[in-house]
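Hi P.,

Sorry for the delay on this. The queue was packed all week, but I finally got your sequence through. Input first:
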Amino acid sequence: MSYSPPSLAPGRGQATLLARANVGSWTKWEVGVRMRRMLLSGVVLAVAAVLVVVVSAGLGLDLESTALLGAALGAVVALVPDRSPSARLAGFAAGFVISWIGYVLRAGFLPDTTGGRAAATGVVVLLCVAVAAVSRNRLPLWTTLLGTAALTGAYEFTYAAAPPELPSTSVSTATTLLLNVAVGFLAASLVTPLGEGTTRAPRPRARGDEPTAPLAEMMTETSK
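Then the structure:
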């Protein structure tokens, strides 16, 4: 005795195929929108970074040293769809300040040795974790770490060359870096991706994902 798998009723099967086709077309449309938005964001960011370098060189603003770093980090803060933009900016700023505190510890309280640098690094990371914990993750950990990495990447070599000049060199580096971060953030925000706080169009629901008939009913139809 051979067994043939249960089949769906003609009307129900057509509805399932139609729903799946709708889901597929919606997915292709959404992917296309995301790709266009990503390309446009990249073009706008590239133009903004180039303008920063050109204008800085023409006016003697000395922004080109951190133009790419700052613009890229600002774009990351703008484009990652996690929490609100204000929360991402607040977390980035908190990490930026924490990194500066780490340099103050190294310059005034810790020896300029491997152990001193390791201790400062540990304190900075723990403070970033503490900010995320105290805020109940309203300020995501990645934003505070990103802010810490921003100042560290831009200022480490300058600090190592002259630790006693921390008050002046840190302010100048922070100013130029934050200006570039602002440019990158604003440029990327011109084309905001779909993320938290935005309204998505309703996705068609495939009926094929739901049970279409009880097992007993299908077995009865098969036996007939």
